């Protein structure tokens, strides 16, 4: 069994937290993905959710226990690698690409 420090877990979540997300807005029969700022609580929820989801995927591929897969994903997130970090970077890239649609925001 592997134990992690709290600071390692906090830093892993901090490295995965998304700053922007895409919201779908329907305007004139067309659906646009509009970038929106994510609240602090939602950032933490999404980061933890992504880490757990990637650990579950890793468990399905391997015969390791879930706890080992979760520790592996947390360490990957701490080192700024792994599936959750890639997901965050992809989402940020798409949000930057779609920033022309920010005029459709009304919230």
TrEMBL record:
It comes from the Eukaryota. One of its GO terms (cellular component) is ribosome. Keywords: Mitochondrion, Ribonucleoprotein, Ribosomal protein. The keyword Transferase does not apply. InterPro entries: Ribosomal_uS7 (IPR000235), Ribosomal_uS7_dom (IPR023798), Ribosomal_uS7_dom_sf (IPR036823). The keyword Metal-binding does not apply. Residues 8-99 form the Small ribosomal subunit protein uS7 domain. GO terms for biological process: translation. Belongs to the universal ribosomal protein uS7 family. This is Ribosomal protein S7. It comes from Trebouxia lynnae.
